[in-house]
Amino acid sequence: MQAVIRRTALAERQAARRAADKAGKRRSDERKIRNNEQVQLNSAIRNDLRAARTARREDWLLGPLAPRRDVGEKKDSYGAIGTRRLQSVDKADGDWKDWCIVAGDRVVIVEDGHRDRGKIAAVREIREKAEECVIIGLNLVDVAVPNYMLIKETDKRPFRTYEAPLPLSSVRLVYPLPHAETGGLRDTIIKELKRNQKISRGTDEEMPRRYIAGLNPPLRIPYPDKEPEEYDDHDVDTLRIEVEQKTWVPTLARSPMPPSIIDELRNKYSKFRDRHDDRYIAKMNLKEEEVMKRRKSIVKMMTPLQELHMKERAEKRARGKPTLSEETLGKIGEVMAKNSVKSTQKLIAL
Q: Over the stretch 162-190, which tens digit does the pLDDT of each residue have?
């Protein structure tokens, strides 16, 4: 039976090793994909900036002789950005920061130089792994629609206006807090938020509570209320009374399932199996007893020299590890002291 247990443990270690190798390869592939996406996004931004700088310099040098750029393919979409600019690149697991901002929160744009700096609006979408958010009605950009998308849509406009994502580091939460002087509620910009590590027990909360960082006692900031979801009833839907009706009650006199189903759900001959029936255990124990009898029979066939060596090994194991007496340790200390004095004299002579 011990051989079966060792085989199962070995199979589990091998499976864990293979799973770790697959996880490492998957992380490596994901990192390569993220890097490629980031390179493409940065390349698109650099190309747009380079084209804008070139056009600005030509307009300044040529003046009224500068060429018109809103012609040809860009006749109706000049000045619009590509759809690639709206896509986000997720960061690796563990590298992105939790800003404690959720969809529905009111935020203000604090990024220097942004045209919407100081404006307050609600968050439409949060992209946590990319550390970006989409704000309702702010950071609007014109996006050129590709031709293959115009063919399938009824709206034939060559460009659309969308809300571009903003980094979460460029926004701050706005929440009404009581004013110190007047006592009335006033919108306050919260610099930093922190979350509890665990959800409070005995509550219906789906997320850990968040607090303003640095305050003692901490001031809790609640999450925005969620709108109730509306479900449409259809004729094919199952009624709740039928779902909650108990159609089968288990009893102690009857097994909940036939014994043969266990072998169907759990492979009977799997190398990962660690629970066995009594008959199989008795069979394996009988095999082990036969192996032990065979080993004992080999001992009877040993030569006198082999018996002597076996006896010496047993006596050595019984004695255990040797220990040094105090007299021996004292002599060793004297020799070490003499050697240290000689080495010191040699260094002084040098």
A: 999 999 999 999 999 888 888 888 989 99
Amino acid at 171: V
233 Cβ partners below 8 Å, 6+ apart? none
CB 292, CB 26: distance < 8 Å: no
Pick from 127, 32, 34: nearest CA to 86: 127
Q: At what angle do helices 2-62 and 278-299 cross, to 10 degrees?
A: 110
For β-strands 106-109 and 120-127, DSSP reports them as antiparallel
- The answer to whether residues 134 and 123 touch, using CB atoms and an 8 Å cutoff, is yes
| pTM score | 0.64
Residue type, 63: G
Quickly tell me which residue has 């036969």 as its tokens: 290
Residues 6+ apart with CB under 8 A from 70: 78, 79
Q: Residues of the chain whose pLDDT is less than 70?
A: 197-206, 350
Angle at 7 between CA 262 and CA 278, to 5 degrees: 45
pLDDT score of 21: 94
Report pLDDT for 98: 86
Specify the pLDDT at position 201: 56
**Distance from the first to the final alpha carbon of the chain:** 70
pLDDT of the residue at 136: 93
Main-chain dihedrals φ then ψ at residue 106, nearest 5 degrees: -90, 130
Residue with tokens 């590590």: 197
In Å, what is the CA distance from 301 to each residue of 138, 290, 305? 92, 17, 12
What are residue 291's phi and psi, to 5 degrees?
A: -65, -40
DSSP string for residues in 274-316: ----HHHHHHHHHHHHHHHHHHHHHHTT--HHHHHHHHHHHHH
* Cis bond before residue 217 (omega within 30° of 0): yes
